[in-house]
Amino acid sequence: MLNEVLSGQPDGLAEVFALVDGFDEALVHGLGRPDETHLQSLADLSAVFAGSPLAAPVADAIGKIEAGSVTDEHLLALAGARAALLGAAHDALLSHLDQALGRSRAEFADSAATSVVPQAVRSWLRELAITGWRGVDHEIAATGSRAVPGLLENPDHRRLAVLVDGFAAELRAGAPVATLERVPARRWADLWTRTMLLPGPGAPAATVDGRLLVLGADLHEHPTAFGVRVHGLLETGDEVRLVRTTVTAAKVDTITGPSVWRMLTGFPVLLGALAGQQSLELAGMPLTAAGDLLWNESLAEAGEAADPFVTARVRLGGAAAPVVAPLDRHPALITEPVLLEGYKATAEGLDLGGTVVAVDPLPAAGPLTPALVKASTACIGLLRHDAGRWSVRPLAVQATVRKKPVSVHTGDWALGPTEARAAKAEATAGAAVEVLRERAGRLLRK
User: Fold this and answer.
1) Residue 10 — φ and ψ, nearest 5°?
2) Rounded to an integer, what distance in angstroms lies between the CA atom of residue 352 and that of residue 391?
3) Which of 171, 313, 372, 398 has its CA 20 to 30 A from that of 74?
4) DSSP assignment of 267-285
5) C-alpha of 114 from chain center
């Protein structure tokens, strides 16, 4: 059944993406001067929501765009409509996947959280929408950046600050956008929508006690940041549920490859569990309804050895999946842990018996290589959906190398490379990290 899900798509999915693409193209051109094609795309969007709670707000917003008098409230309605369309696509895809995997999932409870986006940011977002991506220059992009210091002063606005900072940085890098051969319309519209709708702090996280069995680590490296999202199974009594936790650190763009792990030395318990394939005993760790552990080193200690492949084979099938937060209901944000076996690795991806699933690029900070994936017979990975297709992001593989079975995990190098050549290269490159850290400490002492 998994083959059928991965090889096909839910009914109506193509039509949903076509509606989203129409709206995104209108944002490229600018809502301040829509032509007939873009007005038709907006009208098609409005028709979809007829009879829903969004019908009147969306229709009113489109009418104001035609009249040239759009306001923040109208743009908020359009952002909500776009998010609802992609949320429906996400739900259809995830429902099919859950059914194929036999995975149960919690239902979302209504939340009273409201938007916390201040007026300065809303004004910038309105200017972007009216001007369109093709009209963005360095000055418009810089307007968003100027709002970031003020946002950082308020703890409730820090998520928004990071989002605005990254969004503005992408726009600056592309400015003047009119000269770009290709505009990343879907991505920038995603960022615009998320910024428009970003809610304030939700309900307080509950605290849990239990055993965390690690499945693998998903590594994310950017020029100025490195993050590790650990996926695992949390055992609390008779219940087993999928959870994840994320730790991040700022860095400079010269720190790359295995050396980026040195930026996370403040998390020795978590990194030790990754490198040593150990379970973790949690006591009072905060856990959100969306399945995110808010990591606190003082609330965790290393447990017994726990092979992720044994964990996946024995416990993953019956684990309950968490609810998906409203703003995370987007096809590109699907990352479902799975165990794949019995496939044939090809140049195109993993052939599951007639269905080939593409393999995502592998992180430079981990030991996984394309050769290992091609030689593998089992894979713990994250199923993802992007650009209209399914793919897998490997977290660990079992393979035969020189006639010997090996297991390789992305977190194996959490405490430093274990392969001699990589360790030697990292020792040389890692010296830069220590120099930068020493200089930063000297500046702070001054």
Assistant:
1) -60, 150
2) 12
3) 171
4) -HHHHHHHHHTEEEEEEEE
5) 22
Average pLDDT over residues 127-148: 95
Cβ burial, residue 228 (10 Å; 0-12/13-18/19+): buried
93, 26, 17, 8: which is closest to 48 by C-alpha?
17
**Cβ atoms of 394 and 368 closer than 8 Å:** yes
Lowest mean pLDDT, pick from 125-134, 210-219, 358-367, 418-427: 418-427
Q: The tokens of 127 are what?
A: 């200017």
Distance CA 212, CA 303 (A): 9
Which residues are registered as beta bridge partners of 206? 287
Beta bridge partners of 272: none
Q: What ranges make up the beta strands (E) of 320-446?
A: 336-341, 344-345, 350-351, 356-359, 376-386, 389-401, 404-409
Six token digits for residue 406 = 């090996």
Across 403-421, average pLDDT: 90
- Give the tokens for residue 431: 């010296």
DSSP-derived secondary structure for 86-147: HHHHHHHHHHHHHHHHT--BPPPPP----B---HHHHHHHHHHHHH-GGG--HHHHHHHHHH
Candidates 22, 29, 66, 60; CA nearest to 44 is 22
Query: What residue has token string 């003020």?
Result: 150
The one-letter code for the residue type at 179 is T
Work out the mean pLDDT of the chain and round it to a whole number: 91
Query: Which is it for the CA torsion 255, 259, 265, 266, positive or negative?
Result: positive
Please report the pLDDT score of residue 167 as a whole number.
95
**Residue 3: phi, psi to the nearest 5?**
-60, -40
